[in-house]
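hi! just following up on the protien thing from before. the input was this:
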Amino acid sequence: MDPDGRAGDAAGARATVYDSVGSRARGRAGRDSDIDLLIVKDDPRRPVERIRDVLARLYRPDRRHLWRTMPPFEALVLTPEEFRERLALGDPFFRSILAEGRTLMERGRDAA
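and the predicted 3d structure came back as:
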């Protein structure tokens, strides 16, 4: 789950956050492993702007004292429609997220 609320804070309202593929999702994270997040939420902005917003929320200035102890995050932010399109195309990356990843948080309606 998301015990300290960082992923939820970063996603904002009405979102689903997946701990996507990677060593953490498979339970094999090392000390230097990053956290790969897939966030599915309604957001009309361009993908790069969505990602920038999420990372800015994760690395807020008021959390500066935590930055050295926080694992690095990578985020992919899609709209529900973009997520459904990727699944409909049979995208193996997104299928692996559903197969191996964990749902960390859901707010509002289901993304898939």
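The longest strand covers residues 35-41.
The domain at 6-106 is CATH 3.30.460 (Beta Polymerase; domain 2).
cheers
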